[in-house]
Fold these 2 entries.
Entry 1:
Amino acid sequence: MKRSWYAGPYALWMLLFTVFPLIFVCYYAFTTKAGDFTTANLTRIITYYPVLLDSLRLSVYCTLLCLLIGYPAAWFMAGREFSRNKSLAVLILLPMWMNFLLRTYAMMTLFENNGVLNTLFAAVGLPKQTMIGTEGAVLVGMVYNFLPFMILPIYTVLKKLDARVIEAAEDLGANPLRVMTRVVIPLSVPGIVSGVTMVFMPAVTTFAISRLMSSGTIYLMGDMIEEYFISMNNRNVGSAMSLVMMVLILISIGLLRKVDPEGQGGGLW
Amino acid sequence: MVQDTRLIEIKGISKSFGETKVLHSIDLYIRKCEFVTLLGPSGCGKTTLLRILGGFETPDEGELLFEGADLLSVPPYKRRINTVFQKYALFSHLNVFDNIAFGLNLKDPEALGVKTRRQMKEEVARRVQRMLKLVKMEGYEKRSIDQLSGGQQQRIAIARALVNEPEVLLLDEPLGALDLKLRKEMQLELKTMQQQLGITFIYVTHDQEEALTMSDTVVVMNGGRIQQIGEPKRIYDEPKNAFVADFIGESNLLDGVMREDFLVEMLGEEFECVDEGFAPNEPVDVVVRPEDVMIVGEDVGMLTGVVESVIFKGVHYEMMVNSGSMRWKVHSTSMQPVGSRVGMSIVPFNIHIMHKEG
């Protein structure tokens, strides 16, 4: 038996769950309900451009916040103090072992008007804050869900960083800040690219998190697509939207690849 | 060349990693423009001592002075000391030019004797070019690091350190990864550079030949202690103990008893020697270098033995000669066939007597 035959089941799998769905998405996107060719589905998306902009804006914020929080976390995890003590890594990975909907529901109970945080505020005499239903709450929910995807690739790259290279920079006169900006960060670019990709892409198509954390007031592209498919039973416009999102994601990956052409950050894409 | 001023003084420095004590109260001074080699087997503490000088380890006890001032409180990036790391530790995200310019770019323009950023750029380029010329790597400015061979990376690592014009250059087994021929070339080049630039070199190696070739002073270390400090020739000719004798060059090591001044008994026979000042009947270690054992006629030798093996080593033959109670390693330019009986003779000057350790 040829070795390539072992790939058979995987090829079948991809055919069923990747290639066929893609063909269907393309087909529906360019047809009417009756099955005639049309571009109306695509032009209709233009009317939803505020939702698209919101999605892009929130996912950019989310990616930046994840990078800002995740990089130092990855740095500490990869450092000497934590290399033996895995508690930090476990604490960061622990939420990943649960379904993201469960995590989001847990977040809701924290931020609700009569939730855990407001009860705490009341206990120390602070006024009640409306948190749930705001854009901030959606962002917190997204960051909380996507943070591990930023930390892990950066951690992997930093962990492999040769301690001697850092010492060499110090030796040549770089103070701790310069060591960071001139050596550590440039050398961890592959991890950053990988992390940004892995956070930005799912963040753009976020759904459910936005609806739950905003009590249904904030709609993102993901929610919109879901609504067209499920509630409105209009898979043509839903498919057109999916297609646009896919193209946007492909463009952003293309741009990121320019920063890390060799795909050293795990080479996922 | 070597000046009399003490540039670095190491006083009673000790260091432990966990339970293991790797340095036992080291005392050493290093003079200006001296080429000092720390020589010893792996695990002897030589690299730890070097890393303390570079600022990458802190000793548990002891003092470290640089031109008379405390150095331990100075962080690595403020020390006028640069290091050539064992595996070079070049910056893979920078090209050759930017690797060498790394240290210069961190300096103020005034430190390079210029005022504006623009002048600084020109000055940096000029100095990097000078270094590339020194290490014979002109024309490689734009190359990326992973396009270079081991020997070329080595040269860039040296240039990257030297461009900062340090007072002291630390080298941690820098030639370990190179092939023999390249290593010999680089040994000579390093020595020439050191003399041209007038910089103090502190060189760590386990290769005794390298140490003897390049150094003004060799510091032999073992088990976290200094065994002997001296000029290469002195260390070779007059090893202080059995460890040094065995580690530096090849040797025949024997147990002996000092009968009286200038007379040592070994292998049940008495030999004349040139050492004195031992207690009567003191047990001693005796060292005879293989090249000092002369093959003579069977009837005129002080010892006789049978040739057990002969290996051609290029300039000389290495023979193992069994004298019954001892297998002698003998270096000679004339070959004796395996199985033949030969006589061996050693002149008193070449019998080195050492106190037993511990």
Entry 2:
Amino acid sequence: MVTADLSAARRIHSSLSLAAPIRAGDLSRFMRPLITALIVLALVHGGLLFVQPTNAPAAELAGDGPQVGVVFDLGGRGDKSFNDGAYLGAESAAKKLQARVQFIEPGDGSDRGAGLRLLAAERRALVVGVGFIFTDDLIELAKEYPDVNFAGVDFAVGTDKFGDPIPPPPNVAALKFREEEGSFLVGALAALVGGSKKVGFLGGMDMPLIHKDEAGYRAGVMHVCKDCTVIAQYAGVTPEAFRNPSKGKELALSQYQQGVNVIFHASGSTGLGMFEAARAMGRGHYGIGVDADQYGEAPGYVLTSMVKGVDNVVYDTIRRVKDGTFQGGIFSYGLKEKGVGYVYDARNRALIPDSVRARLLDIERDIVAGRIRVPSTRS
Amino acid sequence: MKLTLLLMLQTLRIAIPYLFAASGGVLAERAGIVSLTLEGFMLAGAFCATLGSFYFGNPWAGVLMGLLGGCLFGALHAVATIRFKADQIVSAVAINLMVVGLTRFFLRLAFDSSSNSPRVAGFGRDGNAGALATFENPLIWLGVIVMPALAWVITRTRFGLRVRAVGEKPEAAATLGVSVSRIRYRAVIASGALAALGGCYLALDQHQFTDQMTAGRGFIALAAVIVGRWMPIRAGIACLLFAFAEAMQIQVQGAGVLPSQFVSMIPYVLTLVALAGLVGRAVPPAALGRVEG
């Protein structure tokens, strides 16, 4: 009885509100379900954000060897670069050395150091931070957990007031790359097969880390072609310059149109625009990838890639932990240690003549033997 | 001569995403809703366009999906700011951050990568970078006419008149029987769609989506809106000016005449100059950003 009364009242009420003039700010009836749907969608989306493993164990590779923890840099797995390299290295360590590896992917903006701390607190045999961003966290944690071994890929070694490097704590291995040596080789390659006196370089953010690549590349070009010019351009002066493919495409197009045939990029996903520009220009225009083998981004237009052997370096460090030969200190990986190199395989062999390959092998031997000094800064 | 032509074409290509986004910005701001969301709308458009083009194998399907994505986030912003009277700037920042997170999440879900999607169908062919190639992209044409079309809508149509009315004096518009919120809903949702077209252009020209590929273009477009004093044609000219500065920067950087940092700050300096009122007073729509009780 009461219910019937209520529903009747509601009917009257709703008919009243229908009769009332529509006020500004009042939602018409057809908008209401739409808006409800949108709110639900937004909530679902918001909920999905929390599903993303933030600071949660992302994966674990089981084994009865050394207990290893790896914390990824921003982007995490699937970045087709650094993090994937570290994953590969840890994966092969799990297979060959029976390492037990735990991976942590920090979420966007979350406390990266927390991932390292979690692993250190578990007293893992080795805790690896992938990316220079972990430098300060590693130094701090190494002091708190002197019995845990740490390693930092691309660890940024500071210098004291005399310009001498400050050694990391004794239980931290600073894993560094001599990118300039790899860049030197691809520079020589670009000049030898480009068929043009102009050679291109595309950097991401205008900063010393990238100048290192440019310096090596420039020296490599000049080594084989004294009268060549290197057109070096940067996409910007902020970190956004590493993820601006459209800008990269325009920069590369303007270089190709000036007569450059080969461009080497060190610019993150901005460089994907360079490959797109090479495609647009068509046959005879090439890009050189960086960090990992980027052949798949534009098959036929990728001359080679200057690769950093993050996988080898991570594997090597885990091996030393297993052998009990782990030591702190600065470890520099160049051509000699197979820490850097360039891709030469079945897919791009056709683009590189045998004579050029032989020349590059000579140069590589000279660098390894110290007969060629490769600069690491722009003069 | 050839260099001039290439420079002009490059300016146009760089300007297109600005033009789309700025047109969305003009429309929403003229209706009284702050357009700090352009960046998010563009990124959403770029991602949805990539998804559409990937699943249907056709760039036009991508454009359609991109438009839908822009509408969706436009509607979200509209609901938050109009229905729930949220602070427009807070809502905009939230949407921008949310789009970054969502695109990254779905990028991994759909393509198992945190960096970029695979190559999808887009506009432009391999081995075709001649002067005319630029005009083979239909979105270029659309981008060229978007500002004149918007100018016509805003000054010559009933909807445009109402948009201006609710942006300047919503109380007066309401007194005359115009539903302020309905006009604002339409304007904000349409602004989402327009800005998303800018994202579609970026993604389909690049044939792929990459994480945060809009790289701050939405904010430059908003600057163009302000420099253009909320008028479509002037905002369009501001977009072209910013794009020209960027194209120049690409050219002089190669030549090594000026430091690149100097040239890349031109858009921001222009915006400051405009805001300081040095090129005529920059008077925003009177009701811009106001939350009515």
